[in-house]
Protein 1
Amino acid sequence: MPSLRAFAISLTGNIDRADDLVQDTILRAWSHFDHFQPGTNLQAWLFTILRNLFHSEYRKRKREVEDPNATLAQRVAVLPEQSARLDWADFRTALAKLPHDQREAILLIGAEGFSYDETARICDVAVGTIKSRVNRARKRLTELLALESEEEFGPDRLLQAALNGHGDVVGR
């Protein structure tokens, strides 16, 4: 055992990692003892297992990126799809409960990305009327979806645009 540990320390340069490596080696040898051929050198077999474990760990670590504060992981994290689908279904249900003129205005502004002026021309009404309809639609959607604020609804750009009143949808 001491020579196995010394070899592990020479490979890793870290006593704690070396001890973990020796422990993993013993566990691997124990669980695969049926692969050991009687009459061969047990120590050589253990050293081979240790060396192979070290190189496997080294290759794995080489592909890993150090991220101590999880900032990188947070930027590349993907939100689960199922909640977005449920949010979308809830949004569609709430949207269907809006009066036609409010639904039309909020969809033209939020989903289609038209400006208030363009939406007013499409609907053949004054810009102030469109602003009023969108505002009432946003308030009603917030009520129907039981939200305290639009941030609660989730990451969907279309929904954010509709609830926040942005004149366009980012990424279109």
Note: Residues 2-67 form a domain with the Rna Polymerase Sigma Factor; Chain: A fold (CATH 1.10.1740.10).
Protein 2
Amino acid sequence: MSYNLGAEWNGETPDASFLYTLSVGYLITDKFGAFIESYSFFPEGSKGDHRLDAGLTYKFSPVVQWDISGGIGLNDIAPDSFISTGISFRLFK
């Protein structure tokens, strides 16, 4: 289980967008994993954007991992559905 709390600024306005993530992961093999995640964005002065996704991960090496996920929006602000993919590089131990 992992979580994250944070804020981000887009550089165009001084307003922050706050966020949280909560995820649960399971290691299927030493290279393949699966996860489910809930997360939301809370822009200042606007309604929250709530989403739920699930996906798979594949570890190419100890420092490179690929992931793919699909999900749904949980309120009218969020998209109805979405897919995502990405590659992560671990820089430091």
Note: Residues 49 and 78 are 5 Å apart (CA to CA).
